[in-house]
Amino acid sequence: MSDTPSSSTVRPIDVAVGILMKTNGDVLLGQRPDGKPYAGYWEFPGGKVEKGEAIIDALKREMLEELGVEILSAEPWCGVEHVYPHAHVRLHFYISREWRGEPQSLENQAFAWQGSVGVEPLLPATIPLIEWLDRLRDRPNVD
């Protein structure tokens, strides 16, 4: 009998993920730096939620640490669980249309504003979200 817990008994790691969206619908994607799992893959910026930290607070902290931007407002969008070979993650996606500052590469990662996403490879958990975002952008504003 193995002492290794199965993936169904391992609690997923909560991750706050930010989708910075410009008024024209472009979103910011970052490239994972060397030394991290899936180095070179593109993803939405974010990071692990610390113990006792609210997800929105983790999002604000991560955006400041990674990109030097202050999130002024963000709305929860969706949640996705994904099991990678190295980790089981629960991704909490927020869309932010209001932030202060211009994104900077504070962790030596490449980043790119994308309308129709053309960067690759995309991190596996990111792929379905691109399609969902395309539908969100195409939906008429009903305010």
UniProtKB/TrEMBL annotation:
GO terms for biological process: DNA repair; DNA replication. The keyword DNA damage applies. One of its GO terms (molecular function) is 8-oxo-GDP phosphatase activity. Its EC number is 3.6.1.55. It comes from Oxalicibacterium faecigallinarum. It catalyses: 8-oxo-dGTP + H2O = 8-oxo-dGMP + diphosphate + H(+); 8-oxo-GTP + H2O = 8-oxo-GMP + diphosphate + H(+). Its cofactor is Mg(2+). The lineage of its organism: Bacteria, Pseudomonadati, Pseudomonadota, Betaproteobacteria, Burkholderiales. It is an enzyme of class 3 (hydrolase). Transmembrane segments: none annotated. Belongs to the Nudix hydrolase family. PANTHER family: 8-OXO-DGTP DIPHOSPHATASE (PTHR47707), NUDIX HYDROLASE FAMILY PROTEIN (PTHR47707:SF1). This is 8-oxo-dGTP diphosphatase.
